[in-house]
Amino acid sequence: MVKTKGTRFFIFTFLFIPVIHLLVFSYIPILSNIYLSFTNYNGVNPPKWVGLRNYARIFTDPQYLQLFRNCLWYIIVAIPQLIFAFILAIFVNGKFKYINFFKGVLIIPYLLNGVIISTIFIIFFNNSGTLNSILRLLGLGGLAQQWLQNLRLVNPAIASISIWRYYGLNFLMFFGGLQAIPTELYEAASIDGCTKLQEIRYISIPSIVNILFINIILSISGSIQVFEIPYIMMNGANGTATPVIQIQQSAFYENRVGFAAALSIMVFVIVVITVNIQRIFDKRGNVYL
Q1: Tens digit of pLDDT for each residue in 116-149?
Q2: CB neighbours of residue 3 within 10 Å
Q3: pLDDT at 48
Q4: CATH code for position 165
């Protein structure tokens, strides 16, 4: 009996600190944020209950609806990003002499600091930058412009940076999945007269569908939470603000903490819904995230 009580006390002492840490730094802040989202709290005066006013403004004000429309550009560019990463993984799958060096080079953009990436592409999209120089070299100087000042092109231009930054990560995930496929399957398919495209369609894609789905979920949730690059490059100007940028500006520049809390709850809910879509597919096809 003494041994049982001692064991329980020993387990309790080990669990106590992590549980307290989880409550103080996770659950209590989330509950506090939910409460503040129903108030007009400005960070100084006591919060006053305003009900659903903050949420109503998010859904009815075109200015805030545009924040979520801006995120669609990041979701759109994720499509060619994933396609390019998959094609590249298929191309180098198998015996490739310098594969380790190749993987190291591809992952570099993902490892770079956001400030460095932003600086690179501010120069790239500048009027006298790399993109316009290439266009002029190809005789397409009429297309050269201030890309970050064009209200129609600034969002797709900034979103396209994600292709360069994340395709290496997607490539490594696809490549790892392809490497796990038994070579006997390809050998049997080759004996049966399957073409390379048929092998990709009937062996490669079905074998890495889990990884493909995970990449899609990560791309969508990441697009909703995008902050770093558009904030550093434009500070939300020229219609480039995203929900997270607006949360930061509302809370720390406009002293509208209650509204910022409501917007953060909306982002949280969208991300949770996106991730839970994976749970549905998990029951159908054992897709793990």
Answers
A1: 999 999 999 998 889 999 999 999 888 899 999 9
A2: 7
A3: 94
A4: 1.10.3720.10
Q: Are 163 and 81 in contact (CB under 8 A)?
A: yes
Residue 236 has pLDDT above 90, yes or no: no
Say how many residues make up the chain: 289
Task: Return d(Cα 77, Cα 112) in angstroms, integer.
Answer: 20
User: Could you tell me the pLDDT band of residue 194, with boundaries at 50, 70 and 90?
Assistant: confident
* Residue 103: pLDDT band with limits 50, 70, 90: confident
Is 160 a domain residue? yes
Q: Is residue 50 part of a domain?
A: no
Strand, helix or coil at 3?
helix
What are the start-end ranges of the H helices in the chain? 2-22, 28-36, 53-60, 62-92, 99-111, 114-124, 130-137, 154-159, 161-179, 183-191, 196-199, 205-207, 209-224, 228-234, 243-252, 257-285
Distances (CA, A) of 56 to 67, 231, 236, 253, 262: 15, 26, 22, 22, 10
Q: How many separate domains does the chain show?
A: 1
Non-local CB neighbours of 264 within 8 Å, separated by 6+ positions: 33, 37, 247
Q: How far apart are CA 145 and CA 148, in angstroms?
A: 9
Rg (CA), the chain: 24
- Report yes or no on 235 lying in a domain: yes
Residue 66 Cα distances to 31, 62, 125, 246, angstroms: 27, 6, 23, 11
Residue 74 belongs to what domain range?
Answer: 61-115+152-285
| C-beta of residue 267 within 8 angstroms of C-beta of residue 243 | yes
CA distances from 202 to 70, 83, 118, 184, 277 (A): 36, 17, 40, 14, 25
Give the pLDDT score at 288: 43
Look at residue 254 and tell me if it is in a domain: yes
* Nearest CA-CA partner of 75 in 224, 214, 212: 224
